[in-house]
Design goal:
By secondary structure, the protein is of the alpha+beta class. Helix content is about 25%, strand content about 35%.
């Protein structure tokens, strides 16, 4: 029998300088979130982004952890204190609500986020490797303050993974841009026009609302 629980399930995302990801996961584990995924990425140097996001090194670690909304907020507060995320050059964290989470051996969790106000949005753009900087340029031209680029890889050396007919194989850039809700449409339009996103095989864009953030001073 398939049980569905109405809970606020979310992804806690933390971006820190290279080498700090394991510490983030350990702090989270000590406070009730069991494990996470660490991705490697690089920050972008454009305009005032480094001052805005407080990221002053090129190599980054992006930590994804999944939990209830209340637990994520609790852990975010601990991370903010221990990593001093409100200071410059330390990192940022934010919470994205998830519509559905399916995990073997556990109930399926379904969120309802309709009617909720989200002042910040996380735009994810997937493009061919080497084009991530073009995404950042297009977003910045429309009012964004830079972004973080990390690599996407396929399922194996002899396989490709398709998302909306886009092959996600080695040599892909995934660009994360955090923007205010009022700027989102203009920034997405700028990226689509710059990268020809609406043409087959050119890339995809998807957006997650952000419930809560730390270390993001302006967007």
């Amino acid at each position: 029998m398939n049980h569905t629980e109405q809970l606020k399930i979310c992804r806690l995302c933390v971006i820190v300088n290279f080498g700090q990801g394991s510490r983030v996961v350990q702090i989270a584990c000590d406070n009730g979130i069991k494990g996470g995924v660490i991705l490697l990425g690089r920050g972008t140097y454009h305009n005032t982004m480094m001052e805005v996001l407080g990221l002053n090194e090129s190599r980054k670690e992006i930590v994804w952890m999944f939990s209830t909304q209340s637990k994520a907020e609790q852990v975010m507060n601990v991370l903010e204190e221990k990593l001093k995320l409100k200071s410059h050059h330390t990192g940022i964290s934010y919470i994205e609500p998830l519509l559905q989470v399916h995990h073997k051996g556990n109930p399926n969790y379904v969120n309802s986020i309709e009617g909720e106000e989200h002042l910040l949005q996380a735009i994810y753009t997937v493009v061919d490797a080497g084009k991530g900087h073009l995404v950042v340029e297009a977003a910045s031209k429309a009012g964004a303050n830079g972004g973080t680029i990390f690599e996407g890889r396929g399922a194996g050396a002899h396989q490709t993974t398709k998302v909306f007919s886009i092959e996600i194989e080695p040599e892909k850039d995934i660009v994360l841009t955090i923007v205010s809700a009022e700027k989102m449409d203009a920034i997405m339009e700028s990226i689509k026009n710059k990268l020809d996103i609406e043409l087959d095989g050119k890339g995809i864009i998807f957006v997650h609302p952000i419930n809560k953030s730390s270390g993001i001073n302006h967007v």
